[in-house]
Amino acid sequence: MTTITEAARKTTLIPPSSGEFSSRQPKTIRLYPVSNYTFGTKEAQPEEDPSVSARLQRLQAHYEQFGMRRTCEGVLVCHEHGHPHILMLQIANAFFKLPGDYLHPGEDEIEGFTARLNERLAPVNAQYPPEQHTAEWEVGDCIAQWWRPNFETFTYPFIPPHVSRPKECKKLYLINLPKHKVLSVPKNMKLLAVPLFELYDNSARYGSQLSAIPQYLSRYNFEFVDENNVVIGRSPALNH
What we know:
single chain, alpha+beta, seven-stranded mixed sheet, 5 helices
């Protein structure tokens, strides 16, 4: 349920206050409308591997040389009509993924992660004025970790008890988007704003990792802001 602010409320039927119910929760996150963001394009970025088996073979070669692969992906949240939406990449009109990628051996986690975000979504400098695209990524909480026990497609949000040497760890980080930002998408991909209600319990379309994002975000309170920087709603409903 979303609380409508006094300025945006259009009804006089106000329910009684249920009292304070926000103890021990993280800070409220401000979400801006998807219309605040400018979406451009840049050169295509083909997938490194032609097939799933080739990707797993490359993972095995990486593990044998450098150990467990470290992967970071970003959960970019905005809103539309007062409901959180996640910015996701779609490849070949079918496959969905979050922006990010694996870190290079020895690379710092956050520095490497922001470099991967820039490689995927930062615009070409000549396309837009510097003030529109030079803002640093604000990497927030790590909201999930997924583990790949073997050189297989299966991943889990825990390390199985019989596994002592996982082959990959993927972390999902909450990205706090600024009021405005330019995002340039490779020509062979689309950047879509997917609502939480579409992701929830929809592993058949989005897979187990992406369909669990609504559960990851359920611990946060959100504040929805319009194009004029006016708060138009809050979620969940508290003290109203």
